[in-house]
């Protein structure tokens, strides 16, 4: 059984309700409540395109705090495990989100997101990522769209990458949401004739589960899983991500 499956199976007995996400690559237009502390554990599996390339993994531990009811901050520690290698510390990230609209007051709910990352492997540069998070609930249905820009700073030059993620889900039960999402990136890559644009894209199903917690310091737990299948030859064949979150 692979590592993601072990994580998910072990988590099921403790699953409980909180302000859960319906997707793992797409953010909804919400922020953590004031004073809330969330611990989110990410596991992502990458199957590169082509045969006999081998699966690799990335793990993230996120600690998030609600500064106000509109503004939260989070610290990530990132680890990776390339195919055939051991686990290593990859990067530290600092993220903040600010909710620009109250839910339902505008035609679209809007949250601004900024993330700074410092990598410690492969001489990777410092990077900054911005997201414009747009979403709306229609009764039990949710629709969300994230527009993404990322800048990498290296040797006095700035590299730019664009991306997107989008999802739609339906709440079948207060403890169960099912849906689908798509995500991808557009970037410049070196080619024999010079730089050219490369598009990576994935799409697949998403599931999110939660149940109420009645006692103790833990307010809730939720689990979300997405399987994204590559849509072209430049994309990994599969990106599988699970997020297990504890809210205090």
Structural overview:
With 248 residues, the chain is mainly beta. The chain has one domain (3-247): Porin (Beta Barrel). It is 4% helix and 63% strand. The protein has one helix at 3-11; strands at 37-47, 56-66, 71-81, 88-99, 109-119, 126-138, 141-154, 157-173, 176-191, 194-212, 220-230, 238-247. Mean pLDDT is 89; it is low at 4-18.
Which key phrases capture this entry?
12-stranded antiparallel beta barrel, globular, 12 strands, mainly beta, about 250 residues
Short summary of the structure?
The protein is mainly beta and 248 residues long.
How would you spell out the order of helices and strands? HEEEEEEEEEEEE
Q: How big a fraction of the residues is strand? A: over 45%
- Domain count: the total is 1
CATH fold call: Porin
Helix content: under 10%
